[in-house]
Amino acid sequence: MSGNQAIETPDSSDGGSAEYFDSVTDKQSIMSSWQRRFPLFLGFIGAFLISWLAVLALSFAFRSSPSQTVEAPKAEDAFSKAVSLSGQGTVVTVPHNQSLNPGEKDFLLYAWFKLKNELQDGERAPFLGKFSESSKTRAGYALALVGGADGIRPHVYWQNEAGKGRWYAFASKDIRPQQWYLFALTFRSKRYLGVHMAPYGPESSPEVLGGYDLEGEIVPDSSAPLEIGAASSSKFRGRVGPFAIFHGIDIARDGAKIVKQIAREPLSLPDELEESNVAIWGDPRNDLGPQHLEIQVGRRAGRE
């Protein structure tokens, strides 16, 4: 026997050897696939982390910044043709017309107003009226606001040619400066006087601030012009917007409905009205009613 030993080479036909090579090949394939996909995996993880950190940063910034709200349109922009009353003599004048006086039928007068400053206790601020201070009878009517410790009280001047009548005070209301309010006066059956008031807004609900039984027929009849403006003694400082006078409506039946529509739709004529019911209706510069009464905006002579 020779000292040289033959070295046996594996037989390629051997099944175990084939499985061995197949296993090695599969592992190499898997490793190659993983090496190709690994950068993609890292990119996915990186993108996820960056997105998460961005969301976290935005959330932190939102929580740490002051809260912000979207403001509704301001009521101060509601009436572009309102007039400013500063006590310097500005006055809106409607020359006398008999339809501006109360008559045999029910009567409704309203005006929108906005105070510039609070009224102090006892301060009187008339801003609309149809009467002459120089006449003997002082017949006519007027609207005013009076400051008080518990709020502002609407006052109505109501007097006939026989001298019957006076200033009538109604319930106090929290009336704030720089906000629009509706002041509505109703007069029915020639003896019942009432006041409604409402803030500006599409869901506004007018509030009845009281009423008077005048204990007899008191119907003002004045030949003075209708004036919107602050007299020299008035403390009214602010703006006056749309106003109107209606006749011949049934206050007991339709008054509350009409005032509610005026409060919620101040630039629309109430549905219940006919042309014959409208004495004047519009803004302090134009009568949009059927009569188209003349309206003058100027300064009252003799005022400071």
Quick summary of this structure?
With 304 residues, the protein is an alpha+beta fold. The chain contains two helices and 15 strands.
Task: Give the secondary structure arrangement, pairings included.
Blueprint: H1 15-64, E1 83-85, E2 90-94, E3 107-115, E4 124-131, E5 140-148, E6 151-159, E7 165-169, E8 181-188, E9 192-199, E10 207-213, E11 226-229, E12 238-247, H2 251-264, E13 278-283, E14 286-287, E15 296-299
Antiparallel strand pairs: 1-12, 2-11, 2-15, 3-8, 3-12, 4-5, 4-11, 5-6, 6-7, 8-9, 9-10, 12-13, 13-14
Model description:
The structure is a single chain. The chain is an alpha+beta fold. The protein folds into two domains: 49 residues; 220 residues, Jelly Rolls (Sandwich), CATH 2.60.120. It is 21% helix and 32% strand. It is built from two helices and 15 strands. The strands form two sheets. Strands 1, 3, 8, 9, 10, 12, 13 and 14 form an eight-stranded antiparallel sheet that branches. The protein has a seven-stranded antiparallel sheet with strand order 7-6-5-4-11-2-15, with no helix packed on it. Strand 8 and strand 9 form a beta hairpin. The radius of gyration is 41 Å and the shape is globular. The N and C termini lie far apart (147 Å). The N terminus is likely disordered.
